[in-house]
Amino acid sequence: MYNPDVKIKSSPLILGIESSCDETAAAVICGRKLLSSEIISSAAEQSKYGGVVPEIASRAHADAVDEVVFRALKSAGVRLKELDAVAATYGAGLIGALLVGLSFAKGLAYSLNIPLIAVNHIRGHLAAAYLEDEDIEPPFVTLLASGGHTAVLHTKSLYEYEVLGGTSDDAAGEAFDKVARVLGLSYPGGANVERLAAEGRNCIALPSAYVKNSTSMRFSYSGLKTAVINVLHNAEQRGENISRADIACSFQHAAIDMLVNKTVESAKRLGVGVVTAGGGVVANGYLRSSLKSACDMAGLKCVLPEKKYCTDNAAMIAAEGLTQYFAGNFAPLDITARAQIPLGS
Fold first, then answer.
1. Are 86 and 72 in contact (CB under 8 A)?
2. Phi-psi region of 145 (alpha: psi -120 to 50; beta: other; left: phi over 0)
3. SS (HEC) of 165-225
């Protein structure tokens, strides 16, 4: 919703709020310069139950949102009345969790008489690259790898991207979490699979995540996940002691190598000189080193956000909020949270 009465500033102060899952986060930016980023996590509490419990997450957000915003403002040296806009995640995510952050942002926007910016969480992950390099501008090819989405995108402008290809079933982060449970690892699964994989020494044959007989750039993780289950089950039936570290290492390679190859191939085919990435799986050290090496070999610039800005955070929400601020895309105060937002939206 465009409001012609709002005077657009060249370097606005924007408060970002993120509460889509188990991280309550707030950040302040001035233009593309990040001034602060604070997080209060309920992950330790969630780990007791082997994953995120929506009701517990919602209560944790309600307890933490005021404090985390206070910390972000204090760290940035910014007063509430100096803010030019407040940006908050409105989807996708857990409805109860989203409503806490979005409602808090609505209250601030109304009381301060400043614009409310509703941010698509996935676009936030894409915007995280701007935190690493303030000067980069599209076009570039972006690898999106998170718990809910995995795709290779052609980012044509600040406002437009094309989905070049993606998963037909599980997202990469979801596959990591499922394999972690099979291996008996605790929450958060992805990080624990990476730690265990570092101890692996011998590769185990696992299927590729490519979709067979497909002319489109699609891939699938369900078969890879099932293969891990079968390897463990067959070894157990034979009474063999198989290295779980080797399985974790082999799975990690099979899950990530394909993503790296597809991303670099797409950039070369499109003649795009820059590759970016976003999403929680981009915090994986093997993915980061593999993508950087592949880009170097192909003569491509690789821009990866710091690991802390790959997982859920408010800095990326503020960064995407800045883009929407310049476009005048302000949200009405009656906007509601959305559990799902199609990737192409």
1. no
2. beta
3. EEECCCCHHHHHHHHHHHCCCCCCHHHHHHHHHCCCCCCCCCCCCECCCCCCCCECCHHHH
- Domains of the chain by start residue, with CATH: 13-128+313-327 (3.30.420.40), 138-307 (3.30.420.40)
67 CB contacts (<8 Å, ≥6 apart)?
A: 40
As separate numbers, helices (DSSP H) first and strands (DSSP E) second, the chain gives: 11, 10
Task: Report phi then psi at 4, rounded to 5.
Answer: -70, -15
How far apart CA 16 and CA 316 sit, in angstroms, is 8
The owner of tokens 């952050």 is 101
Amino acid at 5: D
Whether this prediction's pTM lies above 0.70 is answered by: yes
**3 state DSSP class of 60:** helix
d(CA 307, CA 288): 9
Paired tokens of 91:
């989807």
- Residue 85 tokens, joined: 């806009």
For the chain, give the longest Cα–Cα distance.
73
Kindly report, residue by residue over 218-250, the tens digit of the pLDDT: 888 988 999 999 999 999 899 989 999 999 999
Q: Which sign, positive or negative, has the C-alpha torsion 100, 101, 102, 108?
A: positive
Task: Specify the pairing of strand 140-145 against strand 150-155.
Answer: antiparallel
Tell me, what amino acid is at 215? Answer: T
